[in-house]
Input
Amino acid sequence: MASAKRIFLGYMLSIIIGIFVGLAIVRFKYLDENVSPLILGLQTLPSICWLPFSILWYGLNESAIIFVITIGSTFAVSIAIESGMKNINPLFVRAARTMGAKGFSLYWNVIIPASLPSIISGLKQGWSFAWRALMAGEMISATKGLGQVLMVGRDLADISQVMAIMIVIVILGVAVDKLIFGKMEINIRQKWGLDKV
Amino acid sequence: MSVVVENISKSFITKNDTINTLSNINVEFHKGEFVCILGPSGCGKSTLLNIIAGLEKETSGRVVCNGKEVKGAGPDRVVMFQEPALFPWLKVIDNVEFGMKLAGIPKDERREKAMKYLKMVHLTRFQNCYIHELSGGMRQRVALARALTLDSEILLMDEPFAALDSQTKNILQLELQQIWLETKKNIIFVTHNVEEAVLLADRVIVMSANPGAIKKEFHIQLARPRQPDNIDLAYLAADIMKELKEEVEKVAKAEFDTNWTSKKDLVLPDSDSDMGTGI
Ligand SMILES: Nc1ncnc2c1ncn2[C@@H]1O[C@H](COP(=O)(O)OP(=O)(O)O)[C@@H](O)[C@H]1O
Ligand SMILES: [Mg+2]
Output
């Protein structure tokens, strides 16, 4: 299905870019001071606002929608990675350093696993941004996909088609949220013992 | 093979103040020696230990470890903290193997050694648990096993038993003595507890506060393993306590800022007034 392919591509791209941006901000103080406020500002821009820009840039095609999806969720992912890594328990890092961890091995063995809970909630948030951006993009500029079918329903004044598609959108969104991210979260919370009452 | 602390001073610069935490510390730790650094809370014990560990930078002076100046943290000076600092995303056995994994030791060798040290702290049954499933004392024992696996000659401990209840603490103190007798590491052990210091150490270094400096050294030549109820230990503890009492009051005065005055026998009865002990 066209929608699935788009969101898969767009979301994967946003994760990759988000991780790089997040890591770079954590690693380099200069970037942190100058780029972080910019990202925070861009995050408040609804992804649909990127559509005119992206249509002008790419034309009315697949790339335009994927661009909107990517840009819609990249910032959420990078902010989550940044704050997750900044807020880990400093004791973990100190202990690891006395056992000989530094540079890449410190990131790989300690900082990334320690911030995994917040990284996953960032990815989850990124997913919901991506899903919204997909629908918005498809409604305006696509020739197939869920959003476009929704618009066809409107043009035909077919309320049952419109409602049906809306329900499908909700169910798909919830399903991914619960089945993929929900599982990961439960798994981590159990390991860390965060669910003890 | 030793750690030499030469003229270490440390000041912290905060927004509106400069705090001189350590001033001109000179001390030497020898191979295989168990040394306790004893002082009131806030006198700079942790700061000194962190400087030796390379986790904190000194303001002046230097630390020389086995002939080489300390430039940063490293696995030749493993630290055990007051909190266990174990990783919640790893099982007990993987936590114990962590340092060896960083050092690139092959899997089989790692596992074998981790099991040996888990056995030493009596926790082999719990190797596949996650950290949150263990009690505070068990966590600290895992941290000890993890520190031992790196075969460093120097082990730095910062009040590792201070957060534990007293029964657990006693058990761990005895285990640590046993482990030290077996491994003969140079242990530098920070504590604010006099009884703990005399129980464990060959040498107790008493620190004074504001600024932190070395006040006096005591050599303790009693047979091991020592038991906490040993009467000679009680004598020594009373001796050292006298030295410490003054410092505790000094810190209390500085920290409570209003005109806090100590009643004479608040901290510990003078040995004159305590005629019964030891008869
Ligand atoms: N990061 C810091 N910034 C400012 N002051 C500090 C810092 N760390 C320690 N200090 C000061 O150093 C003093 C000694 O601290 P510390 O070494 O933790 O004492 P101890 O371990 O003996 O209880 C404290 O009273 C505090 O004023
Ligand atoms: Mg301390």
Q: What stands out?
A: Chain A has one domain: 2-191. The pocket of adenosine-5'-diphosphate (ligand 1) is lined by residues B 12, 14, 19, 21, 39, 41-47 (CB under 6 Å). Chain A has a mean pLDDT of 88.
